């Protein structure tokens, strides 16, 4: 029996996906999920990472608004800061958790006061390459 390289990669990807599927997160009623801590998974990656052409990354960054280490550090601070939410309990990272591939692993996201939303949090991985996207991922 012969398999192509693409078939093998597809099968390995499926196994990895099944084994990496997170278990559902229990939710305390009336309480927002905890804000994740900054960790290794949240650190910016090199624009030279494999799989993404460097030219595509450079083209996606506006020439009149280049990235700087200071902007990246500020973005990380704000991403994990609950003070930007209405009651201080939810941050961007609450729904876009780096340890869950920048999603929250839920069918619908939970916000302030433990209120369930109407949609789940899409991943923000590679969002730099999205041409248009509403705040809710649509």
Topology of this protein?
Blueprint (H helix, E strand, L loop, with lengths): L4 H16 L33 H7 L8 H11 L12 H4 L43
Task: Describe this protein with a few key phrases.
138 residues; mainly alpha; 4 helices; globular; disordered N terminus
Report on this structure.
It contains four helices and no strands. With 138 residues, it is an all-alpha fold. It is globular.
User: Main beta sheet: strand number and arrangement?
Assistant: none
Whole-angstrom Rg: 18 Å
Low-confidence stretches: 1-21
Instruction: Provide the helix percentage.
Output: 25-40%
**What structural category arises from helix and sheet content?**
mainly alpha
The general outline is globular
Reading the helices and strands in chain order gives: HHHH
DSSP summary, beta strand count: 0
Summarize the model shown.
The protein is an all-alpha fold and 138 residues long.
């Amino acid at each position: 029996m012969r398999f192509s390289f693409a078939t093998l990669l597809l099968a390995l990807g499926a196994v990895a996906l099944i084994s990496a599927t997170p278990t559902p997160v229990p939710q305390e009623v009336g309480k927002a999920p905890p804000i994740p801590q900054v960790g290794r998974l949240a650190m910016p990656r090199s624009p030279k990472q494999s799989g993404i052409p460097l030219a595509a990354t450079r083209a996606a960054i506006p020439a009149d608004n280049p990235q700087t280490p200071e902007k990246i550090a500020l973005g990380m601070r704000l991403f994990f800061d609950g003070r930007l939410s209405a009651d201080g309990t939810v941050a961007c990272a609450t729904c876009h958790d780096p340890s869950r591939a920048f999603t929250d692993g839920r069918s619908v996201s939970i916000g302030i006061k433990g209120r369930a939303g109407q949609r789940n949090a899409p991943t923000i991985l590679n969002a730099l390459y999205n041409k248009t996207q509403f705040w809710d991922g649509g």
